[in-house]
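@channel anyone free to eyeball this complex?
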Amino acid sequence: NAGVTQTPKFRILKIGQSMTLQCTQDMNHNYMYWYRQDPGMGLKLIYYSVGAGITDKGEVPNGYNVSRSTTEDFPLRLELAAPSQTSVYFCASSYSPGHKIHNSNQPQHFGDGTRLSIL
Amino acid sequence: GIQVEQSPPDLILQEGANSTLRCNFSDSVNNLQWFHQNPWGQLINLFYIPSGTKQNGRLSATTVATERYSLLYISSSQTTDSGVYFCAVDAGGFKTIFGAGTRLFVKA
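replying in thread with the prediction:
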């Protein structure tokens, strides 16, 4: 199993450009997450999804969009890149037997990250 | 919202020493995880521990949910233990909140 795969690993964007960060997992996990990690800081949740067709905002969703058309894929889109979005982006997935059972979530598995610089 | 505080923020150990990292959280949580971020930036899940004690080799963790803290113990530290250790809690609504981390450097 590859686990959680993120592409690209590195990217430099100009202000105002758009791009999509790809994330795919092969563990049949129903939950997926996008985080950003700024230098010297912990991770902050951008968006999450509890299953195909269902997404919701995390702590810092402004400037980003997501979609979840399949169980495996959870792309993150930046429409108008801004310098404040320079960060390392991590995708993660986990399994929960039922999204209404709040304390049943299982450990999160992370991808290796995408380092994004906006100049 | 819920606050997650980790201590100490930085820690330098001589190889072979033991250490305890602490995570305090300000409200009841559904679950708690400990992660290690290695110097290459990769995040590895160490423990999923909403309560009780777990051990995995030289690492163990204890969460006392009623007192809102968790401890990560590292025994006989090795240089490969260097990196950042994060505590993350599930605050409900499927949102995970990370602490700022403890940066550990183990000297040979």
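from a first look: The mean pLDDT of chain A is 91.
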